[in-house]
Amino acid sequence: MNNLIILVVDDDPVIRRLLEQRLAKENYTVLLAEDGYKAEKIIESQQIDVILTDLMMPGEIGGIEVLEIAKNHNQKTEVILITAHSSVDTAVEAMKKGAADYLEKPINFTELFLRLQKISNMLSLLRSAEDLRQAMDVTETNAGETIQNLEIAAGDLQNRLDSIESILSEEQGDAYSRIAAALEVIYK
Fold it and tell me: Which of 107, 128, 157 is the last residue of a domain?
C-alpha cells in the first residue's frame, strides 16, 4: 500500500481521469482538482503529500502558483509539474520555487512511479528521523531526571558518610555507643 496522498491538478478531464486511474491502481490516495482555485481550497483543507499539477491552466492560478500556494501552506508538500510545453527556463523557475520534479506530456508512468517512490522513501525517512528525534528527546529528559535523582541520592549518602565519620572519630563516649550512633545514621 502506497501511503501518499496525491492531488492531481489539471484542466484536461482526460488527463485527470487517466492519472486518477493509474495512481489508484498503484494504491495511492488520489484527490482531483480541475483548476488552481479548487486546488487551493483542497491544499488549505487537508494534508497533501504530493501535487501533480499541469503547468498551464486557465485563470490566474497556474502550475507555478499552485506550487507557491502548496509551499506556503506546507513546505513538506512535494510538487511535480507536468507540461506539454517544457522549457529550461520554466523548469529552473519551478525548481527554484521548490518543485520536486518536472515531467513532460505525454506522461511516462514508469518515470512518474519511480519519482513517487523516491518521494515516498524520502518522506518515510523524514518520519523515521522525526520519530528518532522524539525518542531521543524523551531519552534525554529521562536521563536528565535520572542524573538529577542520582546526584541528590549521592549528596545524601555523602552527608551520611560525613556524619558517620564524625561520630566514629569522636573521642567522647565508648566505642559501642559511637557505633550505635553511626548505625542510626545509616538506617534513617
Answer: 107
